Fold these 2 entries.
Entry 1:
Amino acid sequence: MTAIEFTYNISKVSKSLKPFAMRLTKDNDDANDLLQDTLLKAFTNREKYADGTNLKAWLYTIMKNTFITNYQRMVRKNTFIDESENLYYINSLENSTNNDAPSTFVMNDINRAVDSLEESFRTPFMMHYRGFKYHEIAERLRIPIGTVKNRIHIARKELKDKLYVYEHAF
């Protein structure tokens, strides 16, 4: 397929991409940016498109993957790691606006349980709790990914044992 034919075929299909971009982004400006990125990637990689296959599906896939990549970048960029000794205080009672007495006791017990974990287990556990992927934790702590998984597993098991009284409470 020549570049002119490719451009013509994309122009026929591109009108249906905007509603899909709006469903993904829920914002008109972001949808326009996503549509532009998608079309740019399609033109840049047009040699990867196989003639006779579904062009619309190919473009939808590019758009979906572009949206996911952009979203992951945004999440990573806006994530903050507190590498202090007191990581567990971030979600402690002092940061809570709920003054309900039972939740106060529960939060105190959870904080004490997390605090009692060895540092080597507490840090990977808290990073995972905050949404970091295993490979991201491994990179930041400079330990193998298997060690990260093992330490998080052990931390969960220890916390479950220490907080067993709440197992059926809620």
Entry 2:
Amino acid sequence: MVGNFTELKNQFLQLWNNFSKRAKIIITVSTIIAFLGLLILVNWASRPDYTVLFNNLSSKDAGNITNRLKEQQINYKIGDGGSSILVPRSKVHQLRLDLASEGLPSGGVTGFEIFDQTQIGSTDFEQKVNYYRALSGELTRTIKQMQNVSYAKVQVTPSKDSIYKDKAKPAKASVMLKLDQYQQLSTAQVRSIANLVASSVETLDPANVTIVDTGGNLLSAKLEQEEEGNDFGNHLEMKNQLESTMEEDLNVMLTKVLGLNNFVVKVNANLNFNQRNVKSEEYEPVVGEEGIVRSRQTKEQSQEGTTTTPEGVPGTTSNIPQYQENSQQQQESESEEQIVNYEINKKVEEFVKEQGNIERLSVSVMVNEDLGDEQQEQIRRAISTAVGYNQGRGDEISVIGMPFDQSVAEATTEAQQQLEAERRRNMYLMIAGIIVALGLLFYIFRKSQSSSSGSASQTAEGIDYTVDDAESEQAATSELSEEEQAKREMQQELKQLAEEQPEEIAELVRSWMAED
């Protein structure tokens, strides 16, 4: 075994000594470059893909999680100023389960787990303080799960009872919120937070819950305005919701025709928030000749008897008293009176006009191209049908076609393309350099083998060569020029191959590494 090693060593030294000084330098430099290239490629190919394990962490949670990762000897990275932790993608799900079983992340607060360890000898005051501390922590964790809320802090002040009414103090609570970027909470969300806290604390009224954000805005003022009868916030929210709904519907419709990000839609709705009670009476003509009898009153009268009528000759003679015989007559009379009242046909309607009726609607659409009159009219008709256009209330629809200013978007896209091109170019150059170095080593090795075999055959035949120094230098120069020319040709071919098929070359190198 030792003899074989010595023989190989002698053959290598003999082969190495046959090379000129320049060839030795080229071989050495090429070997170093190839070795470094392989190291870089191995490091790049074996580098893990990191993804976010947790984000928006408190300093306490971040420290506890990193300590657990160090104990498990898991590589990690810290981002976002220490609030995010990244781990290899292949381990993220298992790590989340393992850390969750240990109560991490805890949100930077202490919940009811504070009572998991019973402290012997603690006073009632300490128990009460720990209870409200745990309650505040649990409320903080719950509120942090709400949409648009990235951080929350809850402080609870318990009520103070007293036999004197003026000395009793009600329970109070304060909530500090950090909202996601460009996000706001609606009045309904603020009310839900106030009710959530009030329902969790004994004798706490929602009016005694103060809610603010990190910008110093008093969010609970919206609830106070509602209690005072100021519905401006609700009216504005209703208006924005109606406009947003119409804009979304128009975006869905126009995207299929004009393309994505090729137009802008804006809707402005004027709403009437006055509530009115309307009562109307409508009189209609009587149906038929007699109509509907409302009431009828009939009065009948009948008389029957005799009457005495005086008789005599007109004049003085008839004035002289004397006994005369009266004339008697039979008499009868009847009368009838009838009063009929007919019903008047009357219709009475009473209804309430609700708040938020649309008084006027304006829609504006800008398209990123020049439109003809016919195209504008077609788009206008489609929008009119979609939004319920009403000319009687003064609705207006505007369609304008003009190219958009794409300078900012183009600059951003160009910068991204340049970064991507630079990244791909560096990768191609690295792969091409490695392939060129490997090819050069293979070529030099083949040449050295052929040269060594020729020298060995001459030695076996007992032929001695004595070459002049000038002739040897000329032969070496000629050999190097041929090697340089072949190396350049191979470099060009490998570079062209790397540029045309980079993915295939990268996959080939990975397969070589896997085989090794």
